[in-house]
Fold:
Amino acid sequence: MMLAGPMVVGIIATISVPLVDTYFVGKLGTSPLAALSFTFPVTMAVTSLAIGLGAGAASVVSRAVGSDNRDDATRLTTDSLVLASLLVIGISILGFLTIKPLFMLLGAKQETLSMIVRYMQIWYISLPFLIVPMVANSVIRAIGDAFWPSVIMLVSAVINVLTTPILIFGFGPIPALDIEGAAWGTTVARVFTFAFAIWLVVYRERLVTLALPAVNALLNSWYRVAIVAVPAAFGNAVNPIGIALVTAIIASFGESTVAAFGVATRVESFAVIPMLALSAVIGPVAGQNWGAQQVDRVRTALKQSFAACFVWALVLAMTFWLSAEVITSVFTSDAEVSALAAKYLYIVPLSVWGYGWTIVAAGAYNAIGKSITGLGFYLTRTAMFYVPLSFIASMLADSQATFVAIAISNTLAGIVVGFLALHGLKKVECSK
Structure:
């Protein structure tokens, strides 16, 4: 709870960024809102690389701290940041060059596509200012400090909230930039995040060394990070890729349905913040205790986190049953879009405990170095249930049936992943 408390605040701040963008872009009309909805799964998929790199760095650093090896933790932190910097340059260039064909593949029409291109060009330029500090913050959390990363996330969100409406609609000498203003507002916030996170990891925590490693030592560090980071990155990308595929499936129902799905999934991403916090902080708990060979504490933490996810899903369901239409109307003036988004929020939130169990279990297994299993948990939910059931429902019925399929997917995934995660740790515990 000491770790999760600050993380809830930090994640609320972080997720407020797309919510703020959705709110103000929604004021521009349905087409800009649909354009932003198309970008959401793609930006999340790219961001998953940073989450994966952060998970890899946090895993090895937390286990080094748990085994009382501070020098190894410093070396691994430094080499992880170098690796993140090199990778993000390549990803930014590749992403920038493939914006148009990618979103055409996802079903974006010409008018919407033009707005998407303008938004994503700026987004990719600012990407280095997102990925490097995300890795730095993950390392800081890995040593048991969730406060300062949360402060960074909070202040960054405040900057975004203040700058985004000014840049979208214009103010005084600042011209109205429309949807591009949302991208520029995010960029300003990211630059601050970058500077603050680097200061923390270099000067306050002293987890960066300027001593050049031998080539073999550098490659060994990268390997240790990569064997966790690569599966973790793919795992974190699985959910937004699944959302992208379901967005393409839903696109057959029309632009209003796409816009509604975008609104609903953004509201949902805000609503599951406690689960996201648990998935972030289970890593330091699991990694340090695994490094100290306290497997029983890892399993206990996982069981308690599962219980918390289930209780929170009940709270969400009751909240949205009472207020879904009021909430969705805040993000769009289109009555049809608001009503469709509300239908999603009536149906899906009761099942999000299954999503919570999946991400918490994956976070724990990433931290203990079993990231292939963590990837398997993500694939179980998305590839086995979420996308196939959504596709079948869309072929047989309407968008509401697709929302029911999503709820069923969450439930089935939670049952399967929960059993496999706890059973796997019990086997390790018994073997010791």
